[in-house]
């Protein structure tokens, strides 16, 4: 019986040793699981931050696109009559020339009055669309508004001043449709 008791004691000791190993191993496994979980959590956190950053960039890009599109629409609306104005400028020029040649003739007074009326209506239509003539004579030469075709010496004007207008220039709001052809003082 002493052997049986020894065996029971040995079995009990072995069970206690196994239980101690299991208890010691459990925190190690939990520690590994916690490390893997925290690594996964950190990875997911990083992915979330990257996605959020991409979202913010896309929102900013969309806002910029929307603003640019709005500006393009406004510009298209603002300058929609430019093609029409460019097509009608030669008509205005010819009416100007016709009026200049017949100003002194009384025989064609009715005809001249009709041309003046058409000319005035055309200029009024231009004015309603924001098309205006460019100021020239007496103005300082501006290559954005004037096209110098001749230079003269004239003591009445400062150097680099427009002396004579050879052809009217026009602008639509703030955009030059056609620069004025001018003579400039040297």
Automatic annotation (TrEMBL):
<dbReference type="InterPro" id="IPR009012">
    <property type="entry name" value="GrpE_head"/>
</dbReference>
<feature type="region of interest" description="Disordered">
    <location>
        <begin position="1"/>
        <end position="46"/>
    </location>
</feature>
<comment type="function">
    <text>Participates actively in the response to hyperosmotic and heat shock by preventing the aggregation of stress-denatured proteins, in association with DnaK and GrpE. It is the nucleotide exchange factor for DnaK and may function as a thermosensor. Unfolded proteins bind initially to DnaJ; upon interaction with the DnaJ-bound protein, DnaK hydrolyzes its bound ATP, resulting in the formation of a stable complex. GrpE releases ADP from DnaK; ATP binding to DnaK triggers the release of the substrate protein, thus completing the reaction cycle.</text>
</comment>
<dbReference type="InterPro" id="IPR000740">
    <property type="entry name" value="GrpE"/>
</dbReference>
<dbReference type="GO" id="GO:0005737">
    <property type="term" value="C:cytoplasm"/>
</dbReference>
<keyword id="KW-0143">Chaperone</keyword>
<feature type="compositionally biased region" description="Acidic residues">
    <location>
        <begin position="12"/>
        <end position="33"/>
    </location>
</feature>
<dbReference type="GO" id="GO:0006457">
    <property type="term" value="P:protein folding"/>
</dbReference>
<comment type="subunit">
    <text>Homodimer.</text>
</comment>
<dbReference type="GO" id="GO:0000774">
    <property type="term" value="F:adenyl-nucleotide exchange factor activity"/>
</dbReference>
<dbReference type="GO" id="GO:0051087">
    <property type="term" value="F:protein-folding chaperone binding"/>
</dbReference>
<comment type="similarity">
    <text>Belongs to the GrpE family.</text>
</comment>
<keyword id="KW-0963">Cytoplasm</keyword>
<protein>
    <recommendedName>
        <fullName>Protein GrpE</fullName>
    </recommendedName>
</protein>
<dbReference type="GO" id="GO:0042803">
    <property type="term" value="F:protein homodimerization activity"/>
</dbReference>
<dbReference type="Pfam" id="PF01025">
    <property type="entry name" value="GrpE"/>
</dbReference>
<feature type="compositionally biased region" description="Basic and acidic residues">
    <location>
        <begin position="1"/>
        <end position="11"/>
    </location>
</feature>
<keyword id="KW-0346">Stress response</keyword>
<dbReference type="GO" id="GO:0051082">
    <property type="term" value="F:unfolded protein binding"/>
</dbReference>
<dbReference type="InterPro" id="IPR013805">
    <property type="entry name" value="GrpE_CC"/>
</dbReference>
